[in-house]
Amino acid sequence: NLNNSNNVTIEGISFTKTRSNAIIINGGENNLIAGCNFRLIGDLVIDMKEGKNNGVMSCDISDISLGGINLFAGDRKTLIPSGSFVKNCHIYDFSKWLSTGQLAIRIGGVGNTLANNLIHNAPFEAIYIMGNDHILEYNEIYNVCNETGDAGATHTGRNYTWRGNIYRYNYFHHLKGPGLHGVTAIYLDDFSSGYQVYGN
Prior knowledge:
With about 200 residues, the protein is mainly beta. It has strands at about 1-5, 10, 15-20, 25, 30-35, 35-40, 45-50, 55, 60, 70-75, 85, 90, 105-110, 115, 120, 125-130, 135, 140, 150-155, 165-170, 170-175, 185-190, 195-200. The protein is about 0% helix and about 40% strand. The protein is globular.
């Protein structure tokens, strides 16, 4: 647990066989998780709340009971961005205990970036977006939503005020949901407004 810590780097460590989270970052600035390996984690792997310029980079996450990474940072009242990120991570074989509602990455708040990540092999969705001014770019997502319908590789919706988010230059392939309505690459669900989607 990093609570209101600054300038801490966790690098090159393998985390395995936990009953709960591997890492929690609560507040603070300029903290980085880099080059780590996470396997057989019994809960959400990395939970990042609040703070600025915190990030996960070049980590491998696999064989996970629930979800991979939650990133909720940035002030929605003032639209001040967090600048936090998840980049160049490989996330696969997640949501193995609960087959719905568990994501590779769930992002919320303001002004965070998901870039250059490879996500695949899951019964449910890869990414869910909440909040404002996030950027999703250069990610590759495939073979997700394998046990669900009316779903998306990336999903957002149910809030008029989540605006300013950008999906650009992502690569989606091999998506085929078995349920009603199948699966889409980018699912802008009810009330989604003010999004930019190009170059995918």
